[in-house]
């Protein structure tokens, strides 16, 4: 898999993600042979070659219209990995994309296209095992939204058989940039035509998780804490795990085939149990079944599955419905109970007993989708980041409608009054381009609404 990072947000997330990958590889609790195999597989997936100093080269291409953020990332010396200098695509003279999707797409896209393809082609020539792209970007400003969607479209044209996963971080709803709703709308409308699957992450939700589960902190450091949560979510679904039925790996192409059974439904999100246990264990015990071993608090599997189920159904009078879900569990059942004067594994706490996430009330009733296709379960005995038990669910469900509705409503409100339109029309955009984007995303909303009927 080759990572392509766009703009300030995408490059910050990418840098944090690779650091978390190294942290996970270096985690050593558990069986020595399984640790070695896991580390080898992770290294082969995310890195290619080593520098003169012995640091592994991240299998990534960095794209930005200004070097400020990239330079800051490069100054953060990592002892185990680094970026390949030839894979940094930027300019010394540019000052960004003016927070304007049209500027990034129409002007910067063609300007950067050849250089990005040269870097991508170089990485692909180093290894014949790259079968997919992981694209990371924000979509509030002009680079991630405009340049990013242009390059993703170009990658699709150049590599029609490779899977493309686009991970989009949406800005705070309260507004980071005046034109952000136009930029999000136009970006989504382009990306859903090119990407095989889109993972949507929202700053508002990531912030709430950081507050709630980050040791009950009242202050969240932006963007560091939010990026931390986002990267742990991504890592939890992208690190190696095996299908419990047929032992196949959770490679991107396989997951896309299960999560996106129809091209009208490409939006997914990642639900996880709390990523960091609160330090106040008494509060934790009120809402979770907590069992302890000698090294770390463990929330049992069944409590995790109930939490994930609650998240799937919450809102809209419990009318949310899933098209497809993939559960990924990591860790072993290490909780012990005394039986016949011997300590044995707690049989009631089984990671394979995930009935809570199979019940029909979670899923849309569609005649063309079988029960087998609606839910897949992958498991990895090796711990993630040394957590005893870690469950995550990547879900394709109707909850995305609430987010899309808000974006479309705000964008329509601005468009009706002609707000900021002149900034876009300077770069060859016409009213038909906006109306086409509105129509496309409203069509997506309509399709997801059908899941709730």
From TrEMBL:
<feature type="domain" description="Tubulin/FtsZ GTPase">
    <location>
        <begin position="43"/>
        <end position="246"/>
    </location>
</feature>
<dbReference type="InterPro" id="IPR036525">
    <property type="entry name" value="Tubulin/FtsZ_GTPase_sf"/>
</dbReference>
<dbReference type="GO" id="GO:0005814">
    <property type="term" value="C:centriole"/>
</dbReference>
<dbReference type="InterPro" id="IPR000217">
    <property type="entry name" value="Tubulin"/>
</dbReference>
<dbReference type="Pfam" id="PF00091">
    <property type="entry name" value="Tubulin"/>
</dbReference>
<dbReference type="InterPro" id="IPR008280">
    <property type="entry name" value="Tub_FtsZ_C"/>
</dbReference>
<dbReference type="InterPro" id="IPR017975">
    <property type="entry name" value="Tubulin_CS"/>
</dbReference>
<comment type="similarity">
    <text>Belongs to the tubulin family.</text>
</comment>
<keyword id="KW-0966">Cell projection</keyword>
<keyword id="KW-0547">Nucleotide-binding</keyword>
<dbReference type="GO" id="GO:0005929">
    <property type="term" value="C:cilium"/>
</dbReference>
<dbReference type="GO" id="GO:0005874">
    <property type="term" value="C:microtubule"/>
</dbReference>
<dbReference type="InterPro" id="IPR003008">
    <property type="entry name" value="Tubulin_FtsZ_GTPase"/>
</dbReference>
<keyword id="KW-0493">Microtubule</keyword>
<protein>
    <recommendedName>
        <fullName>Tubulin delta chain</fullName>
    </recommendedName>
</protein>
<dbReference type="GO" id="GO:0005634">
    <property type="term" value="C:nucleus"/>
</dbReference>
<dbReference type="InterPro" id="IPR002967">
    <property type="entry name" value="Delta_tubulin"/>
</dbReference>
<dbReference type="GO" id="GO:0030030">
    <property type="term" value="P:cell projection organization"/>
</dbReference>
<dbReference type="GO" id="GO:0005200">
    <property type="term" value="F:structural constituent of cytoskeleton"/>
</dbReference>
<dbReference type="GO" id="GO:0007017">
    <property type="term" value="P:microtubule-based process"/>
</dbReference>
<keyword id="KW-0539">Nucleus</keyword>
<keyword id="KW-0970">Cilium biogenesis/degradation</keyword>
<keyword id="KW-0342">GTP-binding</keyword>
<comment type="function">
    <text>Acts as a positive regulator of hedgehog signaling and regulates ciliary function.</text>
</comment>
<dbReference type="GO" id="GO:0005525">
    <property type="term" value="F:GTP binding"/>
</dbReference>
């Amino acid at each position: 898999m080759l990572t392509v990072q766009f703009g300030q947000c995408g490059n910050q997330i990418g840098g944090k993600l690779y650091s978390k990958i190294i942290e996970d590889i270096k985690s050593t609790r558990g069986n020595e042979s399984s640790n070695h195999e896991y580390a080898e597989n992770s290294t082969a997936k995310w890195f290619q070659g080593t520098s003169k100093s012995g640091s592994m080269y991240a299998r990534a291409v960095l794209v930005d219209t200004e070097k400020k953020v990239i330079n800051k990332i490069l100054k953060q010396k990592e002892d185990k990995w680094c970026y390949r200098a030839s894979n940094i695509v930027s300019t010394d003279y540019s000052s960004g994309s003016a927070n304007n999707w049209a500027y990034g797409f129409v002007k910067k896209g063609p300007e950067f296209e050849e250089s990005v393809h040269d870097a991508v082609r170089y990485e692909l020539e180093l290894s014949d095992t790259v079968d997919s792209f992981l694209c990371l970007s924000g979509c509030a400003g002009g680079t991630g939204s405009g340049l990013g969607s242009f390059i993703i479209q170009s990658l699709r044209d150049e590599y029609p058989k490779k899977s493309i996963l686009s991970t989009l971080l949406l800005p705070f709803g309260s507004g980071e940039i005046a034109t952000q709703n136009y930029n999000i709308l136009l970006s989504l409308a382009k990306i859903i035509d090119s990407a095989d699957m889109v993972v949507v992450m929202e700053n508002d939700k990531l912030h709430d998780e950081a507050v709630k589960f980050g040791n009950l902190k009242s202050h969240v450091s932006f963007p560091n804490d939010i990026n931390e949560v986002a990267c742990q979510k991504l890592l939890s679904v992208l690190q190696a795990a095996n299908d419990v039925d047929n032992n196949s790996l959770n490679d991107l192409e396989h997951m896309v085939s299960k999560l996106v059974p129809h091209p009208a439904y490409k939006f997914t999100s990642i639900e996880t149990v709390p990523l960091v246990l609160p330090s106040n264990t008494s509060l934790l015990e009120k809402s979770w079944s907590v069992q302890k071993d000698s090294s770390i608090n463990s929330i049992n599997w069944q409590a995790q599955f109930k939490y994930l189920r609650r998240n799937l159904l919450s809102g809209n009078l419990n009318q949310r419905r899933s098209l497809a879900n993939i559960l990924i569990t990591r860790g072993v059942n290490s909780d012990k109970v005394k039986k016949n004067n011997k300590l044995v594994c707690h049989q009631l706490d089984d990671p394979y007993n995930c009935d809570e996430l199979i019940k029909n009330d979670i899923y849309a009733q569609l005649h063309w989708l079988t029960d087998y296709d609606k839910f897949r379960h992958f498991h990895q005995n090796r711990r993630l980041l040394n957590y005893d038990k870690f469950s995550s669910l990547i879900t394709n469900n109707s909850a995305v409608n609430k987010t899309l509705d808000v974006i479309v409503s705000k964008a329509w409100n601005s468009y009706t009054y002609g707000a900021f339109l002149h900034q876009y029309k300077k770069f060859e955009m016409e009213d038909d381009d906006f109306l086409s984007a509105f129509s496309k995303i409203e069509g997506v909303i309509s399709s997801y609404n059908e899941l709730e009927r």
